[in-house]
């Protein structure tokens, strides 16, 4: 996904097509027959689509705060996907705050991060792609990412769901829903945790994934 | 809890009083200042009451398929607690089936286990205690076990909830509820799993608890 | 079930125990190893309990307007089970009307039937048994007849559900519920039909059962 | 319906007009005064419209997994009707899987079928018609197919509804709804069955229809 | 209904039996073959039971603020039926206020009326009957008065429902419910009106009934 | 409202403006200071808007099956307002059937009426106006006709609501809603009656209105 | 209310009678014609009953966390009213914690207070009265305290409701309900506040009441 | 906000950006480091956005009938924001009536006010700005004004919410919602009061704000 196409696909389903094909190509070019997969947020939805379409290439899967299940678009996610409607450093700072349950540990770097990210976001190529991915109405995007339940129930891989209990961006009920439909599933929920489980519970998260990939948990 | 009092307490709240006091005495007599705690099912509710009343004695806590939160009495639990209304070896066998999601791995021993358990249950002392614990209407028992939310939100210990996704006895939503009210919580849910997480996912369960008590997860 | 015990069991669950044991004895005494089963209304619940407890004795099963699933006690059923609270020929006539969607075809015999049934009902032995079966509160009876879903999902027999769409006594949703929980199920619903499918759609019903028992439908 | 018009009607209601008129013409040209009717899925909705408009031409009617009642668009149906938004052989294979509850019996031919169907679908005339039938938003299509209840309650024909209990494309509740509104109705529901009742329960289905058309069921 | 039996019937259903029989006797002794009927409040329920049981004796029927349909016991009705739990002149005055939407027109007589009614109520025979009619729990009384819908749909008489829109004792939804189930029904609702339609809208009420009994409305 | 403007207003609210102004002009030109008002269906909504805006011109008001309150667009109304999307004599006949609960009394004239109305409808001027009134999405039309409750509660006129209990076009709940918000209201509901109360209950309707306008009911 | 009767009234409504009468006597003996009133918790319900019965004696009224409206019994209140079912110093301490949102400011005195209160509670006269007030089922007590809405809407006094937003004992929705039904009402809600508004927001509370009684707020 | 830009921003979020920036500039130019803030209706939403973005500039905050929380667009607000769809002096008068619960005290000036406001509204510059702020669909405007809950819970200022209980424009539940999410909040609700708390309860409102800004309440 290194470059931004000058005439980007329109709508999230065409992007999904592109991402899934890119990953398959990547696996081919690296001569990887079968691999574990970790998907975060939107990446969780990509992982699920890949599982449905190329199950023979995938082994165990970890999904963190994943999209791919039906949920009611949160205001936080609406503002994140709609960032370019009214882009500002202040809005960027607000967004970054939402990713953490306890913002104190990023407080002193918040200005720096916001500034850096805002500048990166102002890159025209980035903006062009991003705006093409997330047009209004954004509830439609959430819905287009959903895998039909008749597809979910056929996924045979072991899936580990990881979600922050207080995630205001992708609500924890999304993972509760996936757990109901995936046949071979485990689910780990972290309290006092927002959308960044891997940051707010770093050590536990690291240890959990190691155990899961070694088939110990 | 080695002996059955000849005139047992009446109602689950008096039993709860007794159990909490017994555990405190036990800890005193063993000269244990502070301990980890593992509570299963009804034992989960006991652990929560102990946490509320003697927090200085408890360190980390694991609750498996715990009572202690509000839930609608399931028919399965109603039949289990009401076993003596119409006791039979057949009813015992039905009950044991409910504890496993996939009964095949106990199938060949089911007759033996049912018979043994039925005989044990017919011990008059056991029956006297059990009937005193679980009188009708049994929704009342579930409700009497619940800790007020104003109490739950004051528990400062790390709590790990473990629950089978398909538990027909204590539904998984019970743990979802506790997770919402306990301030420092993690929750692990097992798919294709009924009320016996420690049996149906033995190795994973073992590994998870070790990590948790070592503060690694 | 030919005779009425002079001191009848109390409560529907003790009666259920009795009925299930009687049927097993009957099958033994007739040296029937394995049989098809047809259960109507309350008899449907009995059939389901037998299926759970002695599956090796039962082949294909037909349930007509069956109890055994959770439903909200209808006023009609409450009045039928509570007939002896205020027994009269008029009340008997009202009840008989409820069994048919279109009462016209029994209209001319209604007086006769009501009279006969009323006299039979006034037999003290019948009354004693009946009152012992259906004490207040009657929602409890409906609930006590229910098989836990963890039991229903383990029934391996082919079950055919038959229900009148306009049944005011046991609502058709009861069969919709059973269909959701029984793994190997077919369901036939008759329009313009009350609780007596076998009377109001006699020929179709007859033909359907023949086909089902011959494994043609 | 042999040919695809070069400028196809727009929207499902104009198509419906066309289909109903075509069938009436067909009956005229074949000099059929009155006929039984079998309608599958979308065809079920067509049959119902024909019943409302030309009741004198129709005798008994069978509807399998029919549209024509209100239901919430399933994701599966949304993807099927929106196939051309992102057509691929992989998507075709996913869709075919949804039609069966147990895909094992088509597993070995799935590749062949998907390929054949995909090629057929890529025929520009087919695509043109199909896209003209099913434009976004597709909930609108479901709604436009619905017959007002004031029309349904006037249909005097015997109607047999047939539906798979696990149909993820047109949910079984659709038939439950039609049964509530059609005055002369029977309904047969198959367990462990998806959208293809006629395939997954072939023999039973065949036998059932014969009996129904002979007025035996 | 002139006298109060020294050992009154227990429970509302036995009273209902008594009242219906009394009315039939009355009609017989007066040699009335067939009559119009006006039933108010509890009297509405009596009228409906009479309609079900002796339809040949009844012509047109007016029901004012009638019981006989399911509704959630209002606090006002609970206090009225439970008056003797804590009888006082003050409580009597409160109750009388509830019967009018605008109490101003009875304000100056309220003291007199309360006193008179309170004294009458303290008559031991009245009290004995009343307490026997309305024991706790009173939701049960409301429920026992309900006619099963399978009975309501068979009533062939013309029924006129009259109800105050702001009735806090028997809510107007009760008449909405009856209107749904009685086949030949008209319903007149008065705004700014409590339980006493015949008092608060006297002239209109009078005129309406005349027209109805003359078959003009 | 005698002529159809060649460039008609767009949207129902502009039409409402036009209608209200036309009626005020009409009253002026006829030198009517104050008048009773009868409004049917859409005309009911017009009457309510007139009441809000020119209360000094209006005396007593009768609303029959009125719009003007919030309700969920029925399919029947959607098809009526969308008639020109797919106009046909058959569709016209269907629509006419909906206006009567019991179509038998118009059955023999149905063909004639349908034909006449269809021809009238095909008049281009009529069609132009009609299509301009009722564009999609039609739920919006229902909503735009609604009077805010803060306006309804200020209407001081006596209003009589008349509605058919089985109206499939404007549901009876619409009048229940208006009754809740209009301070001085009476409501007459007819059983076995669709949208044409004045046709299906002609004599009663006539008599009721006379009484109402004479202040007798 | 200085003494505890040796045979106390049974049930909350008899107590209510007693309390209201005592207050009226008190006002008489002190020769107070008309007074402001402040009612806290259960005292709020007493104040409302007094308002309904002796409105001429009362001026402005303040209700803090009042009962008297319908609400679902909270577990906290159930445990408080049921204290004597299982009395202990530990249970007393738990209860006291619930009265404060932030327990830190009573933390150091908690032991003392709990001990004192526990000893006071063990006074047999206190216990006798208390147990007579709050028998099971306690939802019934909440319900018996409720004033019918037809009574509430007639209260003409200015009422100021004061409630803690986080009150776990009497939920804030209770005051929201009263505000909807009392015609002349103001309501002040405190954030970060439990059942003791007068303690946790002492200065603001003091200032607010002064202003209210001086008719300044 | 003195002038109306000739090409106004499109959509409420761009306007919000503009307003927030203008206020910050204003504070700068007046050299105000930190200030109390009072926001009314839409102004309440502006105040909340300012709080989120420039918390260091704001001290205590009063919000009256504020937007900024999710609520279902009321018809009244829809008509106010959509005034220019069908502008008239009559519509203006209707709108003004909604702002008061008891319109009597503005009755005699209503004509004058309506006329003045209507003329002001017909100023093309005003209209241009207003129409640019409030385009259809207006539910979207309400939603775009909402602050994500993850932002609200981080606001550290003392906020006083003031709302009329009978506000038909911004419903009181909006303030109930904000109270749940703002950590340091008080809320004052006025009975018999519409959207203009500061007008209908002028003296109390004045006194309340003084006390609040002096930290006395």
TrEMBL record, chains A, B, C, D, E, F, G, H:
Entry superkingdom: Bacteria
Key word Hydrolase present: yes
Domain AB hydrolase-1 as annotated: residue spans: 16-201
Gene name linked to the record: pheC
UniProt cross-references to SUPFAM superfamilies, sorted A to Z: alpha/beta-Hydrolases
Protein name, per record: 2-hydroxymuconic semialdehyde hydrolase
InterPro entries: AB_hydrolase_1 (IPR000073), AB_hydrolase_fold (IPR029058), AB_hydrolase_sf (IPR050266)
Pfam families tied to this protein: Abhydrolase_1
Single GO MF annotation: hydrolase activity
Keyword Transport tagged: no
Keywords of the record: Hydrolase
Gene Ontology CC terms: membrane
